[in-house]
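Trying the structure run again after the queue cleared.
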Amino acid sequence: MQSSVTAAHSPRALVVILDADQHASEAIAAVAREFGSTVEFARSAENACDLAWRAPTAIVVADAHSVDGRLESLLERLHASHRGLALLVTASDVNVRAVLRWVRAGAADVLPKPFVREEVRQALERASMRAAMALDGAGLRARQQHRTSPNSGGLSAIVGTDAKMHRALELADAAGAVRSTVLIEGESGTGKSMLARAIHAASDRRDRPFVELACGSIPEALLESELFGHVRGAFTGAIADKKGRFLAAHGGTIFLDEINSAPFAMQLKLLRVLQEKRFEPVGSEESVDVDVRVIVAANQPLEALVREGRFREDLFYRVHVLTIGLPPLRERPDDIETLAEHFLRMKCTDANRTLLGFTPEAMSAIRAHRWPGNVRELENAIERATILCRGARIDLGDLPERVLRTENRVGDGMPARDTELSAPHRTEPIPRTGSGFSDGATRLNAGMIDDATASTTVLASSLRERERQAIVSALEGHGWNRTRASIALGIDRSTLYRKMIELGLARHRDSA
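Done. C-alpha cells:
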C-alpha cells in the first residue's frame, strides 16, 4: 500500500558560504546548485552579510570556527535586516550546549561535519522556508488578512492583545504559509491545541483532515498502533487491520500534543516519520508513504529535557524548525478581562442566558488571580459562574473558591489595574507596563505631572507605596529571588530590578 509523497520544496534563495575548508564549501555548493540556488563564497562575516543583503532571500552557511567565535554577532547582524535571511551553522565538534546557544540566538539549523548529503539538502530546504517566512512583504500581509478574516476559522478565533501573544500569532500566521514542522511550547491550558487548529486552518491544507493525539493519554503499549496502525494478527486482540492517526491525516495535518511524554523508543520512530514521511504499521513489513504536515506541542521545555537525557537530541533538532511559545495567562494581565468577557458571552449563548457582565469586585478578583490552569481554568471558572449566577451580573459568590483565596493572587492580591487611577488635571492616560502596574509613580517622580498640585503629590505617594508593597510582597514570598518574583508579578527580571532600585530595595537583600 503506497501513498503519494509530499512534494519537495526546492531552495531558491541565494546561498552564501563562509568556511575556510574548501572541500566543505564545495560540498555544500554542489547540493545548493542542484536545486537551482545561486552560490556565493564569503571571505569574512562582514562580506557574508554584504553578499546576503543583495538578495531578497538568502541562506548564510557559516562554519563556527571560521568566524573566530563571533557567530552570535553574525546572527545579530543578519537578523537586524528586514530581508529574508536564515543562518545554517556547520561545526566539526558539535556539543549540546553550543547548539542550544546557537539555536537560541536564531540559527535555523546546525549541520555536523563531515556532511551527509541528504542532511545538507534537508537543512537547505528548511532554511529556505525560514528565509521566505522572514520576508515581511505585501504578499504575506495579504495572506494574513485573508487567514485572520472572520470567515477563515483560523487565527481570528484566538483572543488576545498582549504583546507576547501577538508575537505568537504572528509566528502562527507565518507557519500557515509553509509546510515546515511547528513546535508549540507552553504550559497546560494555554491553548496549544487551538493554535495548532488555527495554523491548519490558515494553510493550504485547510480542507483536508486535522488529526489530533495527546501522546500522554495513550498507554505506551498502544501508542505505536494508535499512531501507525496495525495489521490483523499483529498482537492479541488485533482481529482486523487498523488505520493509524498518521494515515488518517494523509494530505492534511497531524497534531501531536505532549510529545515530551512520548517513550524514548517511540521518539525514534517519530524521528523517522518526520525525516522520511514513511512508516510500517505494527506487524507489517511493508512501508507506507504519507503526505502529512506535523505540528507538535510540549508542556515542558524540550531544551531542558534534552539536557537531562529525557528527550532525544536528534528529534529535538528535527521539530525545532519553527517554535512558537505560548505565554501563561499570568504573563498576559491585560488579556484576562478581555478573555473573561469573551467567555461570558460564549457561555451565555450556550446556556441561553442574558447577563450584563461582572461586578467590579468580581472582576478585581479575576484580574488578581494567578490562574495556574491558564486559559482553560479561566474558561471553566466563567462557565461555572454563568450557571450559578442568579443576578444580573456575576459577583464574587459566583466565582470558584480557589479564585478568591489570597494565596492564589498575584503579588499581594492587588488587582492588576488597581493603580490605574485618574490624576487631577491629567490630559493623557498613564500607560500600563507589562506587569499590569501603572508606571504613574515613576512619571510623577520625574516631574511629568504638575508638582504644584497637592492632590497629585498625594496620589504619587500612594501609587509609589502600593507598588512598593506589591513588589516587597512578591520578593518576600519567593525568598527575595528576583527571577521567581518577576514571574509572579508578570514583569521582566530587568524591569523588576529597575523598580527595586527606584524604590530603594536593590540592596535590601542579596537577591538572586
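The chain has 21 helices and 14 strands. Worth checking whether this holds up in the mutant runs.
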